[in-house]
Amino acid sequence: MIVTIDGVAASGKSSVAGGVARALGMPYVSSGLLYRAATLLALEAGTDLGDAPALLQLLERSPLRLEPLPEGNAVFLAGPQGERDLTADAHTGEVDAGVSALAQLPELRGWVNARLRALTPPFVAEGRDMGTAVFPGASAKFFLTASPRVRALRRVKERLDDVDAVEAALIARDAKDRQQSQPAADAHRIDTSELDLPGVIAAVLAELER
Ligand code: C5P
Known about the structure:
Elements: E1 2-7, H1 13-24, E2 28-30, H2 31-45, H3 52-60, E3 64-69, E4 72-79, E5 82-85, H4 93-103, H5 106-117, E6 123-127, H6 130-134, E7 140-145, H7 148-158, H8 163-176, E8 188-191, H9 197-209
Parallel strand pairs: 1-6, 1-7, 2-6, 7-8
Antiparallel strand pairs: 3-4, 4-5
């Protein structure tokens, strides 16, 4: 069983996927965290975010491990001194601003997708194109939306930033990610603007029980 939860930036996908996965007793996998980790490594190495061959070379010599825990995904980089947890560093404004450039490269999408398809079900997969490009045969698909203002207000609670600037950055990132963010024709769409987290999780679980 594979359940896909896609949606726009900061629509609550990770929290919803985590809650649904916990309720179902399975892990959830954040595809965005792999794009973020690759972007972080590239920024740190000074690799051009549009240079697919250089990025793939960098990733080949940087062993990443995604830990798909239901309480939150983490990503680690293996190194001579042991593993470095990249999770927090992958969620900065700098990574937010750069990740869409890397994510539009077909080679990098292939790199992420191959890792996801190598996982053994059951799991909940969360991202933009889980229900379309990556797992078109998933058992159930969801697509989350929310107004830009609501998403910005939620984000500001996590990272103490100016709400107007955060809203503008989210709108810009949605525009850059538009190509891979089209809902699957058979996805259940949920507008989370008026719902709290338990409400969205309950809506997904109710649909799964039908
Ligand atoms: O979901 P999250 O906001 O963490 O994703 C970070 C970025 O990774 C997105 O803005 C997008 O550029 C890219 N992404 C993608 N396809 C996915 C998941 C994420 O292109 N399935």
